[in-house]
Design goal:
Layout: E1 21-25, H1 32-45, E2 50-52, H2 71-83, E3 87-90, H3 94-102, E4 107-110, H4 112-115, H5 118-128, E5 135-138, H6 145-157, E6 163-167, H7 184-193, E7 199-201, H8 203-207, H9 213-222, E8 227-231, H10 249-257, H11 269-310, H12 317-333, H13 338-361
Parallel strand pairs: 1-2, 1-8, 2-3, 3-4, 4-5, 5-6, 6-7, 7-8
Helix pairs in contact: 1-2, 3-5, 5-6, 11-13, 12-13
The structure holds phosphoenolpyruvate (PEP) and manganese (II) ion.
Length: 376
């Protein structure tokens, strides 16, 4: 399903100083000196296109630093006047929008904790009616693509066409190396729904620590994201918020220098031919995989009918264990990772169970129930 968004190209409102497009600045504006000095160092790298700073901070717990507030907008004005960098802030209420507009902020973003709430997003959208300003919408805290899309639609319907999405990762129950799980497939999914929508990656909030930021930044570039938003502080060790994930301007510049930028389009004809060749092989194999799946499902149907006629249960745990064991061993011998094989088999198996359940319940009356099987 393609989304009906009216979007102007990124180049109509922001142009990278140098590739990749980089928006950088402290998590929070803390003091005038901290903000202005950081802005100068960032501008001097020659790599930064816009200066970000949190003025109003949505904090998980009360009593934490909740942002310096409106006075910070004055500091941003000074930073912009002295460095020429356009400025970006997070807005979370209609009042923030009003104040930030009055202060001449150039770009707004909607934070992850706001995107989850349609009332909040609508309030921001209403305040933006009739205003021509670029807005970037962060993904919601939870991995829900519809919420992300809904927020983009609300802002877009308010007449904002200079629109971008920011991928900042998702909160997950399982704790991993990341502060917020990247779940790249969700960002890729958004791209397939709205190919013209620019997506900017925020490696700081995905990583939660400095060490992972280069890896996440490189991956974002390899997935053809349009730019990066990275937190940078003149002295991260004393930052009032998100200290672990901020970089000095020098470290940031160094990190960007080390990125490998690859092209989404192939220009060289020889490479193009080779790639077309390889892709055609992939297409043939994919067709075969689908064909074999269909054949497998036909047999599953026969088994289902047989089990029904003979009063046998759908699931026989021993049989499933045997399938899993034999196939993962085989796959390992063929250099496929056990995690991948297990996931693939579980997916196939759960569809087989669904099919057999359908057959078992035929003629039993009642509407068919669509269940999502967790393991099966
Ligand atoms: C931020 O950018 O500092 C911020 C609060 O981010 P998020 O909304 O992604 O948590
Ligand atoms: Mn932050």
């Amino acid at each position: 399903m393609k989304l009906d968004l009216k979007i102007q190209p990124l180049s109509s409102w922001i142009t990278a100083k140098k590739e990749p497009l980089l928006i950088a600045g402290p998590c929070s504006a803390e003091t005038e000196e901290q903000l202005v000095a950081t802005a100068h160092l960032l501008a001097n790298t020659g790599r930064v296109t816009a200066l970000r700073a949190g003025i109003w901070k949505p904090r998980t717990r009360p009593g934490e630093f909740e942002g310096i507030g409106s006075i910070g907008l004055e500091w941003l004005k000074r930073a912009k006047a002295e460095t020429g960098l356009p400025t970006a802030v997070e807005v979370a209420t209609g009042k923030h929008v009003e104040e930030a507009l009055k202060a001449g902020v150039d770009i707004f973003w909607v934070g992850a904790r706001s995107t989850v709430n349609p009332f909040t997003v609508q309030e921001i959208a209403d305040a933006l009616q009739g205003v021509d300003i670029p807005v970037m919408v962060k993904n919601p805290v939870n991995p829900d693509l519809s919420l992300w899309i809904g927020a983009l639609e609300r802002i877009n319907r308010a007449g904002i066409t200079k629109l971008a999405a920011i991928h900042r990762g998702f909160s997950s129950f399982e704790k991993t190396a990341f502060r917020n799980e990247p779940m790249w497939d969700l960002a890729i999914n958004l791209k397939t729904h709205a190919p013209e929508l620019p997506i900017i990656c925020d490696p700081s909030h995905i990583s939660g620590n400095r060490e992972l930021i280069p890896y996440v930044s490189q991956k974002a570039m390899d997935l053809d994201m349009q730019g990066l938003m990275i937190e940078s502080h003149i002295d991260p060790s004393v930052a009032w918020t998100d200290a672990k994930q901020q970089l000095t301007p020098a470290a940031l510049s160094d990190l960007i220098d080390r990125l490998t930028l690859r092209k989404p389009e192939v220009v060289n004809n020889e490479v193009k031919d080779k790639l077309a060749d390889l892709r055609s092989n992939i297409d043939k194999i994919d067709d075969l995989v689908i064909q074999k799946m269909a054949e497998r499902m036909k047999i599953v149907e026969q088994i289902g009918n047989y089990k029904k006629d003979n009063g046998i249960t759908i699931l026989q745990v021993n049989r499933w264990d045997e399938i899993l064991q034999k196939r993962t061993d085989y796959a390992k011998a063929l250099n496929l990772s056990p995690e991948f094989t297990e996931k693939l088999l579980e997916l196939i198996h759960s569809e087989s169970i669904r099919k057999q359940t359908e057959i078992m319940n035929q003629g039993q009356g009642g509407a068919p129930v669509q269940e999502k099987l967790t393991h099966a």
